[in-house]
Amino acid sequence: MAGFLARRLGAAAVAALLSSLAVFLLMRAVPGDIVGQMLGQSGGDRAAEEALRSFFGLDRPLIAQFGDWVGATLQGDLGRSWYQGRPVSLMVWEAFLVTLELAVATLLLATLIGVPLGVVAGIAQGTRLDGAIQSFNLVGLSAPVFWLGLMLLVGTSAALDWSPPFAWSGPGEDLADNISILILPVLSLAVLQAAAYSQFVRGLMIEELGKDYIRAGRAKGLTPAELYFKHALSNVMIPLVTFMGLILVQILGGVVVIESLFSLPGLGRLILAGIQGRDYPVVQGALFFVVIIATTINLVVDLLYGLLDPRLKP
Amino acid sequence: MTAWRLGLVLAGFFAVLIVAPGWVAQQSPFDLDPARALQPPSAAHWFGTDDVGRDVFARVIHGTRITLGLVTASLLIATVIGGGLGIVAGFAGRWFDLAAGRFADMVQTFPPIIAGVMITGVLGPGAANLVLALAVIYVPTFFRIGRSAALAEAQLTYVEASRAAGFAEASILLRQVLPNVLPVLVLQFVIMFPLALQIEAALGFLGLGVVPPAPDWGAILEQGKNFILVAWWMSLWPGLFVLLSAAAMTLLGQGLREKFGR
User: Fold this and answer.
1) Do B202 and A294 touch (CB under 8 A)?
2) Please, what CATH class does the domain formed by A88-312 belong to?
3) How does it sit in the membrane (chain A) (predicted)?
4) Is the ipTM of this complex over 0.90?
């Protein structure tokens, strides 16, 4: 187990370092940096340009710039935003809390909708009910998340004469406001993930219900409820956990567009604004954070997998 | 099997739009006329008009070729490069396999859309950058698929037999392994298409896609979002077309998978 963990951690660290390097190089490989943006069209004052570049450390060799970033990051210091002057780690953390709330609410809702739908569709395979659920899955998986958000905005505004507030307030400030801001973003994200869940669980159920032990159980006289929920469902739990991790990573990505649509101050918006403003420390720090989170989720899923299924213990 | 047929019908519909958009939508997707801005759907403008008075129906129909074309181009590049490298890595192994595997790991540490935002955000909007971003995102997927397929293939007896018969490695790879791995890559292309389409649309929606006034679906949605509460028709139709074409490819993918028997 320890060996497995060490190997996985090592591979994850290498991937995180390489991806940070890729972000670093990509941002510096294209023309236009913060100095260019600050001086704008008026540029031409060479002295000011050089002074600013050296202020931001952009005149130093790339390898030294990257080395400094890695060194500071390992000590927990992600630097300061070039625009706001605030510590990047603080900005990332604040944005993460917003994204986390969005992601957890989405995951909960998607699980609550998707898993029962999948179980029902699997049991009722081939019936009209199964067909209806599969149609929902197809639409849910095919509809762009942000488009669902737009349509929900139109729908609630037309039917209920209601639109979500535009100024963000956290759950600690004003819970009612917080919920009314998040309800549409969560709904639009959850439809896609519920459909993914439902599709996945349906396949698992069908596979599980075709196995011999189910037939044996049926012959033995177990009730359908016992068969489905006690036996089949408990075997389906293991791949379900893996899938939950996958969904969480997907939500983490999906929030970029949704945050931009509903103006939520989450990680996605932070990254987008950072890239557009060439605020290198913010982009570098926020992306590093996302990579760490995504990698951790994958690692935890792998470990859980081993715990839930003793046969897989390395 | 009805699902497969529905997929074919939808795909046929989009194929017509790609081949002859002007035949379906007579009006120009670019002609603006402020006098008829933001009109709801009518007999003259089936999908309504946008904020500068362009016909939304014409824009959406002409956008089919742009949006689906960009996704197709990106995935083709990813299939050729990723699949090709994967086959070589799986067949030849050693250091190349290791290096390419690390690269694939690195790209896949990012959630796909975030990688897309990063690449197009830094390089700037434009069709070429969009295709590049999508291709980079999906190269690892095809690399892994090609690699595992080639790995499995390389262990079969016929490869051993060809080697014993004195065929050159390159010839075994090209003439025997490649044709057997190709169907797997084609299937993967169809499966990835709806996913890549979602990302293409999302990047367009964020303003990181094609340059205006090209009627890319994501770009139309981006433009429509500012008028969402006064002109829902600017957003409804392009999104619906994304939905339908993604559904078509999903259905085709399911059908193909059944035909392949896996």
Assistant:
1) no
2) mainly alpha
3) Multi-pass membrane protein
4) yes
